[in-house]
């Protein structure tokens, strides 16, 4: 399914406030009012298309989210679908082999330009790491020392941020360490993360969206020596499978859009890619040679929201959120990933099953609809052991003596703000200063009627409240990226550990990449107490 819509005015939509403005935002984004050229909707037997119903969820705010349970049950409602026949095989990103010398493992990456098909049958100019589009998977182990030699061959400045990794600020890949074309950046650090799924992508000022949507993204798998990890599938590409989702925007010539002017162009399509392959009207296939398969899902879209579910209405067994294992495995009907978020789930299959991706517009324009993206053919004959009854020990914070802050997400015209400042340069950013060992609780307040995806560098956080309600289920896990709906708020708690620096800063920002580039980013300085 690819869709063409006429442009709406982001400036007019984003500056509306109050109840009437909220209704206008939903109409502009959710209903996708169209004239010529007419939108196209092709299902080709790939599952139910719910474009109009889903489109309003992205910026609909607190009222819509209050009914989200009903919404998600509808996604799986009706007669269950049988598994779709696969049209092509799922591409598994290469696993980049590091070279080990002494106690250090070295990985070599080159950010380069190339071409690839993003819109089926059309060649686009793209970027990738070690290839034309996307990048290889890196595998790190907790406690190991890694060195990354990253060469910039893009013709423009870039950085590489290790999203979700707990690393020194100087090694975090933020805008302070941007490096120019023809040079090599060589960060090195000891891995201090337990088992989880991370990813890497650019993070230079004002160019993050442009470089990321053109393909600069790759997955990082962190392994550890825990009993839980030993009990879970871990054979990469066999029973441990990466799923990198991207919903992009292109014109008919294949030019990938990344900013407001581009997204307001007439006649755009919003192709959905899975591991770099267009799945608009194609269902990919994967043969599971083991009964239990682990999937690592990443939403690498610039702004759109992706909900993963089964076409037959069956459940997914979620085992991890952004920042590692949940306390216990959770049977869920669907997994909702805002831009930048990750989750892990397992399927124990004795019959074929099809995974669907439900796309909800996250910005002024975007994709929407339900896609049958991956049919898993059950070919395992083994009988796996039961999952561990406990995956992780998560001690919930008592925040009664935590330092409290309010972080306000705002706007001024088309400029996006944090605490009143547009972070389009290092000098103009709002600065959050804290100390090593500090324990804090932040209220992230969305004063706009827009969708935001709050990402914190350096340390993971726990959700304390979501629009005034206590977290439940998988929300009790560890996160670094979480949804803040229009007019809503979340409270998050964290402890700043291990790293202090009086020169280099971490970032906190909206992970809708266009909002980040438009200024919704602030600096975080962690210094010695």
Brief characterization of the structure:
The chain has about 525 residues and is mainly beta.
Features:
529 residues, mainly beta, six-stranded mixed β-sheet, 9 helices, globular
What strand order characterises the main sheet? 14-13-12-16-21-18-19
**Percentage of β-strand residues:** 35-45%
The biggest beta sheet is recorded as: 7 strands, mixed
Quantity of strands, as a count = 34
How would you portray this structure in words?
- The chain is mainly β.
- It has nine helices and 34 strands.
- The strands form six sheets. The protein has a seven-stranded mixed beta sheet with strand order 14-13-12-16-21-18-19, with no helix packed on it. The protein has a six-stranded mixed beta sheet with strand order 1-15-23-22-17-20.
- Strand 3 and strand 4 (123-129) form a beta hairpin.
- The radius of gyration is 21 Å and the shape is globular.
- It starts with 9 loop residues before the first helix and ends with a strand.
């Amino acid at each position: 399914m690819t869709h063409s819509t006429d442009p709406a005015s982001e400036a007019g939509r984003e500056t509306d406030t109050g109840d009437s403005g909220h209704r206008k935002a939903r109409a502009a984004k959710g209903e996708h009012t169209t004239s010529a050229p007419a939108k196209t909707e092709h299902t080709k037997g790939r599952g139910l298309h719910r474009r109009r119903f889903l489109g309003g969820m992205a910026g609909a705010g607190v009222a819509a989210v209050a009914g989200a349970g009903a919404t998600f049950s509808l996604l799986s409602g009706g007669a269950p679908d049988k598994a779709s026949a696969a049209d092509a095989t799922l591409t598994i990103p290469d696993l980049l082999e590091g070279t080990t010398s002494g106690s250090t493992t070295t990985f070599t990456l080159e950010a380069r330009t190339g071409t690839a098909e993003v819109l089926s049958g059309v060649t686009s100019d793209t970027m990738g790491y070690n290839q034309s589009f996307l990048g290889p998977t890196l595998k790190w182990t907790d406690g190991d020392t890694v060195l990354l030699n990253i060469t910039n061959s893009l013709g423009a400045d870039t950085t590489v941020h290790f999203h979700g990794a707990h690393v020194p600020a100087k090694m975090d890949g933020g805008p302070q360490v941007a490096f120019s074309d023809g040079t090599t950046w060589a960060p090195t650090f000891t891995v201090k993360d337990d088992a989880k799924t991370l990813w890497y992508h650019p993070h230079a000022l004002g160019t993050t969206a442009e470089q990321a949507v053109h393909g600069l993204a790759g997955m990082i798998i962190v392994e550890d020596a825990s009993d839980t990890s030993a009990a879970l599938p871990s054979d990469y590409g066999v029973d441990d499978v990466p799923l990198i989702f991207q919903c992009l925007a292109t014109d008919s010539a294949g030019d990938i859009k990344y900013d407001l002017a581009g997204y307001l162009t007439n006649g755009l399509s919003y192709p959905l890619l899975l591991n770099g392959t267009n799945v608009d009207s194609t269902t990919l296939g994967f043969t599971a040679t083991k009964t239990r398969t682990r999937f690592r899902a990443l939403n690498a879209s610039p702004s759109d929201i992706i909900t993963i579910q089964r076409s037959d209405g069956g459940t997914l067994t979620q085992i991890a959120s952004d920042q590692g294992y949940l306390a216990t495995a959770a049977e869920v009907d669907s997994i909702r990933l805002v831009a930048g978020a990750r989750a892990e789930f397992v399927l124990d299959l004795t019959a074929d099953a099809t995974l669907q991706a439900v796309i909800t517009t996250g910005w002024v324009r975007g994709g929407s609809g339900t896609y049958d993206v991956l049919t898993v053919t059950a070919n395992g004959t083994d009988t796996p052991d039961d999952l561990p009854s406990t995956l992780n020990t998560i001690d919930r914070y008592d925040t009664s003596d935590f330092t409290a802050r309010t972080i306000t997400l705002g706007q001024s015209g088309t400029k996006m703000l944090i605490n009143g400042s547009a972070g389009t340069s290092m000098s103009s950013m709002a600065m959050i200063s804290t100390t090593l060992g500090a324990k804090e609780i932040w209220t992230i307040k969305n004063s706009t009627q827009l969708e935001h995806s709050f990402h914190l560098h350096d340390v993971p956080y726990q959700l304390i409240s979501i629009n005034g309600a206590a977290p439940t289920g998988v929300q009790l896990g560890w996160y670094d990226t979480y949804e803040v709906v229009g007019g809503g708020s979340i409270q998050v708690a964290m402890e700043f550990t291990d790293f202090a620096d009086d020169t280099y800063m971490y970032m906190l920002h909206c992970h809708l990449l266009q909002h980040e580039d438009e200024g919704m980013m602030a600096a975080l300085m962690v210094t010695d107490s």
